[in-house]
Design goal:
The protein has 14 helices and 8 strands. It has 374 residues and is α/β, with parallel strands linked by helices. It has 2 domains: 11-180, Rossmann fold (3-Layer(aba) Sandwich); 185-373, Dehydroquinate synthase-like - alpha domain (Dehydroquinate synthase-like, alpha domain), CATH 1.20.1090. Helix 3 packs across helix 4 and helix 10 packs antiparallel against helix 12. The structure holds fe (ii) ion (FE2).
């Protein structure tokens, strides 16, 4: 028996057409800042739909559609100053994980009394003192789980890493999960984001912070992802597969938001930042090797997972990667990675996800895992 605490968003609206909930949910103020990436949400008309729903409620919208695929600290600095300048009351993040993480950080910083650099919060010199602006998260990918977490993962180029701004105050107030938004994802984004969700579910199951509740969530998400990700990958318009993948991603998000992650994310963030490899793809390559390494030291955890899901779990994982055309090694994507091993190792952070790995790792052991994936 272990004690545990849980964090959740205040309310969640799930299902096709749930974007329309914006027409009726309680909102504070009459001015909104919509944050998204540069293309898909705009091109597929979802931003116009949000603006039009809010307009009927006499809520003005300002848009910031400059979020990069891996959002940087500098973009957050620009966006939060714009939100403050326009005196907005509500922040809406709509898009993939980067758009949501950017919006989350903006909601946190725009409400503070002082003007700062988001880097100061990551380094822990500052912390979120005042409540963030009212924040609504609307994911368009089924993977990041950012809609339920307390951290915004940001690219920090000077440190060759992706690091987190963390505060329980940053958990979104409202989450809208409308699978229709995910129907537009291409094959690669479907695979990478789906495998990111799978790595959340698996890592949270093995995490030092796992409890009975989060483990049940992890198992639900793992089973759904193995069933529906290949279907969504093959046929992006399959509404049932998209529905259950968004649901699985949300459930896996709840699991890791409350249990923590592990070495896949701990190493993957740095590999992604140094070698410019998408987050979900980096995790998909690392996860089998991290499991092979970890479970030498905690075979009972693998046995427990196999009893609840599939026999020969790691073999199943490798076979899913193959179905989704995930390369076995990073050098299959970027041959230069071999020259960057020392740079990756010197920038690994042991403070974030790695601190939840079920086996305490030294830099030597991180190097062993990394070399298996190169
Ligand atoms: Fe992730």
């Amino acid at each position: 028996m272990i004690n545990f605490s849980l964090i959740f968003p205040s309310s969640v609206h799930f299902g096709y057409n749930s974007l329309e909930k914006l027409a009726s949910i309680e909102l504070p103020g009459n001015s909104c800042f919509i944050i998204s990436g540069k293309s898909s949400m705009k091109n597929y008309g979802f931003i116009d739909r949000v603006i039009s729903i809010l307009k009927k409620r006499k809520i003005n919208s300002y848009c910031f559609t400059e979020v990069e695929p891996e959002v940087s600290v500098e973009t957050v600095n620009i966006a939060y100053k714009l939100a403050r300048k326009n005196k907005v009351d509500i922040i809406i993040g709509i898009g993939g994980g980067s758009a949501l993480d950017c919006a989350k950080a903006v909601a946190g910083l725009a409400s503070q009394d002082i003007t700062v650099d988001v880097r100061d919060y990551i380094d822990g010199k500052e912390y979120i003192k005042k409540d963030p602006l009212f924040f609504i998260a609307i994911p368009s990918t089924a993977g990041t789980g950012s809609e339920v977490t307390k951290n915004a993962v940001l690219l920090y180029p000077e440190k060759n890493n992706k690091l987190s701004l963390r505060s329980e105050k940053l958990v979104p107030k409202i989450v809208i999960l409308d699978p229709e938004l995910t129907l537009t994802m291409d094959k690669n984004i479907t695979a990478y984001s789906g495998l990111d969700a799978l790595s959340h579910a698996v890592e949270s199951f093995f995490s030092k912070g796992a409890n009975d509740f989060t483990k049940e969530l992890s198992v639900i998400a793992i089973k759904l992802i193995f069933k529906y990700l290949p279907v969504a990958y093959k046929d992006g318009k399959n509404k049932e597969a998209r529905y259950y993948m968004l649901y699985a991603s949300f459930v896996a998000g709840l699991a890791f938001a409350n249990a923590g992650l592990g070495a896949t994310h701990g190493i993957g963030h740095t590999v992604g930042a140094v070698c410019k490899i998408p987050h979900g793809l980096a995790n998909a390559i690392l996860l089998p090797q991290v499991l092979i390494f970890n479970t030498k030291f905690c075979p009972e955890k693998l046995k427990e997972l196999e009893e609840k899901t599939f026999k020969e779990f790691i073999k199943e994982l490798l076979s899913l990667n193959k179905k989704l055309k995930i390369p076995m090694k990073f050098s299959d994507i970027n041959p230069n990675i071999k020259n960057n091993i020392n740079l990756i190792l010197s920038n690994i952070s042991f403070a974030g996800s790695l601190s939840f790995n079920p086996v305490k790792l030294t830099i030597k052991e991180v190097e062993v895992i990394l070399k298996e994936t190169i």
